[in-house]
Amino acid sequence: MDIAHLIHHPEQLNEETLYELRKLVAVSPCFQAARLLFLKNLFLLHDSSFDQELRRAALYLPNRRLLFNMVHAGDYEIQPATHTITPRPTATTVEADRTSSLIDSFLNQTPAQSPQHRVRVDPSADYMTYLLQAREGTPTPTAPTVGHSRTTALIDTFIGQKQERIVLDNNAQGPESLLPPDADSVQPEESCFTETLARIYIKQGRYERALEIITKLNLNNPKKSIYFADQIRFLHKLIVNNKHKS
Question: Which residues in 111-134 are b (16+ Cβ under 10 Å) and which e?
Answer without folding.
Answer: eebeeeeeeeeeebbeeebebbeb
